[in-house]
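Q: Hi! First time doing this. I have a protein sequence and I read that you can turn it into a structure. Is that right? Here it is:
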Amino acid sequence: MLKICHKPILDESSTYSASGEISASVGNAKLSGSNPIGLKPRAVASTSAKSGAASSLRAKVDVNNNGTSTSTTGWAQQSNTSKVSTSKLVTSTEKAQFHGSHQIKKTKTSAWQVKTTNIKF
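A: Yes, that's right. Below is the predicted 3D structure, encoded as structure tokens:
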């Protein structure tokens, strides 16, 4: 008996990320997204502190659903920690542009440091 196995020619998903330093000594911003075959694109944003915990961290993902609508995760915020991540945001369209917003406040009296990240599918 001949058994035929089919393997996908393409990966199950294409993963992309946009990242950057919020400031040299404060923290990092990352927006990770994927576009799984047969599903809609999705993304998650995270903000992390360098060298220990920060007073406050925030991360948010907004998406433009190919010009038809916008969606957001809203702000994910944590205090006295080293990392915060949003929930996964899935688009309602095949083409979309994600915008990550990242904020970190190293100490209670310091100013907010801000970074934005973008991924387009």
